[in-house]
From TrEMBL:
Family annotation (SMART domains): 6PGD
Region (Disordered): 289-310
Family: Belongs to the 6-phosphogluconate dehydrogenase family.
Official protein name in the record: 6-phosphogluconate dehydrogenase, decarboxylating
Phylogenetic classification of the source organism: Bacteria, Bacillati, Actinomycetota, Actinomycetes, Cryptosporangiales
EC number: 1.1.1.44
GO BP: D-gluconate metabolic process; pentose-phosphate shunt
Any GO molecular function: phosphogluconate dehydrogenase (decarboxylating) activity
6-phosphogluconate dehydrogenase C-terminal domain ranges (all copies): 161-307
Amino acid sequence: MEIGLIGLGKMGGNMRERLRRAGHTVIGYDRNHEIADVGSLTELVDAFTSSPRVVWVMVPAGDPTRDTVKELGELLSDGDVVVDGGNSRFTDDKINADHLAEKGIGYVDAGVSGGIWGLKNGYALMVGGSPENVAKVQPFFEALKPEGDYGYVHAGPVGAGHFAKMVHNGIEYGMMQAYAEGYELLTAAAVVEDVPGVLKSWQEGTVVRSWLLDLLVNALQEDPNLDDIKGYVNDSGEGRWTIEEAINHAVPVPVLAASLFARFSSRQDDSPAMKAVAALRNQFGGHATTKAGQAATAADLGGPGDTIDS
């Protein structure tokens, strides 16, 4: 079968290859013409030899995706389907779907997880859309998902796929933060001499084993002290949207919220908030403050035996 794929970056390029290995014909377009199969969206749509046409969009969320969907709306025909496989906010999906529906074009939102490992392992797919439109894309979902019974769900109507992926990524934030905090505590304790070995020992037989743990072990094998990595962490949006939706639905998500705020803290070389905390401790308790550029002393650090309020 034929499918158009727009956006051939780290994930899109591997998805093209996985689809081709499954026997599908993929017509790929990217702004980088060196990796594209065609030079424009018009050429992509014209290259199809059968219908209905399915075009999968893998470009950055926001305006790039919205603009691409609008352009496809002018090029595709009644019965064709557009799949948004990027990390769009689920609230964009109904807008895109309604715009395309005016022209008889279907719309499916697909949350895609798997990163750079998806080519080998397959991609977990969370899909939203009408049964009719999802059915038109189903052969491609089957090619992209992992082998076996898991890794794919038709989560509900338009928007459900991206909502599910948003929550997935919010959980991912929390899990990564938990591993990171455990790693830091292990490195802080002099009694543990082989921190990478401890984490590696958790990979089998423990309740905390996971793919994320495997990836942390891989990272430590390459750089045992993570000396080549700066502790600065961006967020791509899904974590923020998860917290906003938790507020909208009055659902408590303290772990997910804390993990997002920890990323914000990572971007501060010298946190203004913690400066204020240090100043307040000094004011009410006479606790010592550490000057900029000065290392903290044991007395500065205090401890559980400190009788003054902390």
